[in-house]
Specification:
Elements (H helix, E strand, L loop, with lengths): L8 E6 L6 H12 L3 E6 L9 H8 L10 H6 L2 H7 L2 E7 L1 H8 L6 H8 L3 E6 L3 H5 L1 H12 L3 E2 L3 E4 L5 E5 L3 H11 L9 E6 L4 E4 L2 E3 L6 H12 L3 E6 L11 E4 L3 H11 L5 E4 L6 E3 L18 E3 L3 H6 L6 E8 L3 H11 L4 E6 L10 E2 L1 E5 L2 E4 L3 E2 H17 L5
Helix pairs in contact: 1-2, 1-9, 4-6, 5-8, 10-14
The structure holds cytidine-5'-monophosphate (C5P).
The site of cytidine-5'-monophosphate has 14 residues, from helix 12 and strand 16.
Length: 402
């Protein structure tokens, strides 16, 4: 039983994609968490999973027909739309996303989407080329501007044999995210500034120096801080992620642009989460034309970038400061040294290297603050973000700082 989801009323919509086989597990887990579930299926969904299966796992007859007299007599579609605390469409095909984005309501599921005031969550699952198609992406944007949640898709091998973004998120992740969606208030009224992603330091007009940071940890922290009720400003280096719809979003390219953006906005913030993997150096001079291949060796002269976090730490009124220490070796001692040197309130140490930390879906961290230390098990960045936000919120409320 999960106290946040207990007795929450959830409509699970299932549309026609191979990932529909995961929907049964999702419903089962929701019920285990204490939620009450009603399932709505499209006709195409039934080609992948039977209504009997969904009825068995949800404990209720499946809704599948807008004009079913019997179902309407039991609980009409408007009543079902009102009943829901949240509607989760998992999997959501490109087709259903297009329909909802355009306000269509020609079947039960899309009608419910128009008729509900509940939180509406779409969990895309489709071939990677379909996901990346600009028409699908335009629909995603439209849905997000209407305050619908798009969770995922995950990246990896697909049923069609391709590898890329388009996998439906795992049911366990969906249950966790839904739980977090209902859990708000721990950072209510707080201003949170977050940097995320890598920076690009230009070499010439077509080349730059960067690192493997994907921005996933910073974006997950931004989502979690929003869920906790904070007003979030996200200053992001170049990444391939959709910014959280409720964050104030400031894209930057270079470390020095990030530095300026942070210093402009840090004055009014309560918490600064410095998650970005800021490039330590930039090229002393950027070639105005593409550097041609000629000599056997090419020397680039690099100059230090300003340390954004250390600069903020020296401000006369500083926010609660959280830094990251990404290390390949001597994790704890190096993180401890950075905590002291940069005068941080908290440092999150994560081991990086091949298949670890940066750029990955999962992360393993140890958090150091004051005289305390807490090691977290390896978990998804989304889940970890929530745990970190809960920890930070606890420290803020207890008035603890460096
Ligand atoms: O010293 P190091 O780069 O390992 O410190 C990492 C922490 O400092 C991270 O929180 C990172 O966001 C921040 N940082 C920064 N500006 C830099 C370099 C790092 O804010 N130029």
């Amino acid at each position: 039983m999960n106290p946040v989801l207990a007795n929450k009323q959830i409509v699970v919509g299932v549309t026609g994609g191979i990932a529909a086989y995961k929907s049964a597990d999702f419903v089962r887990r929701l019920r285990e968490a204490g939620a009450v579930v009603r399932v709505v299926m499209t006709d195409h969904a039934k080609a992948f999973i039977t209504p009997l299966t969904m009825q068995a796992v949800s404990g209720h007859p499946v809704y599948d027909d807008l004009f079913d007299l019997q179902a309407e007599a039991a609980m009409g579609h408007i009543e079902l739309a009102r009943w829901a605390d949240a509607m989760v469409i998992a999997p959501a095909t490109a087709d259903v996303m297009a329909k909802i984005a355009h306000g269509e309501a020609n079947d039960l599921l899309t009608t419910l989407c128009l008729a509900t005031r509940a939180k509406l969550i779409l969990v895309p699952a489709m071939n990677q080329v379909m996901w990346e198609n600009s028409l699908t992406q335009a629909n995603v944007q439209a849905l997000q501007t209407k305050h619908m949640y798009i969770w995922g898709p995950g990246t990896g091998s697909q049923a069609c044999g391709e590898v890329g973004p388009g996998r439906m998120l795992e049911p366990i992740t969906l249950v966790e995210q839904l739980s977090a969606l209902f859990m708000t208030g721990s950072l209510s009224g707080k201003q949170v500034l977050i940097t995320a992603g890598p920076t690009h330091e230009a070499i010439d007009p077509v080349r730059y120096i960067t690192n493997v940071s994907s921005g996933k940890m910073g974006y997950a922290l931004a989502e979690s801080a929003i869920e906790a009720g904070a007003h979030v400003t996200l200053i992001s280096g170049p990444v391939h992620l959709v910014p959280p719809v409720r964050a104030e979003y400031i894209p930057v390219i270079s470390a020095r642009q990030m530095y300026n953006a942070v210093l402009q906005r840090v004055k009014d913030c309560d918490i600064f989460l410095s998650v970005a993997a800021v490039s330590d150096y930039h090229c002393q001079s950027v070639a105005s034309q593409k550097i041609a291949k000629s000599a056997e060796q090419l020397t680039l002269v690099l100059e230090r970038n300003p340390d954004i976090l250390a600069t903020v730490a020296e401000l006369p009124t500083r926010p609660y400061l959280v830094g990251f220490a990404a290390e390949t070796d001597h994790l704890i001692s190096k993180a401890q040294a950075k905590w002291t040197k940069k005068k941080l309130d908290m440092i999150i140490a994560n081991e990086v290297g091949e298949q670890k930390g940066m750029g990955q879906e999962d992360n393993t961290v140890t958090v150091l603050w004051k005289n305390q230390q807490k090691a977290f098990a390896t978990m998804s960045k989304v889940k970890l973000a929530r745990e970190l936000i809960a920890l930070i919120a606890g420290e803020i409320h207890n008035g603890r700082s460096h």
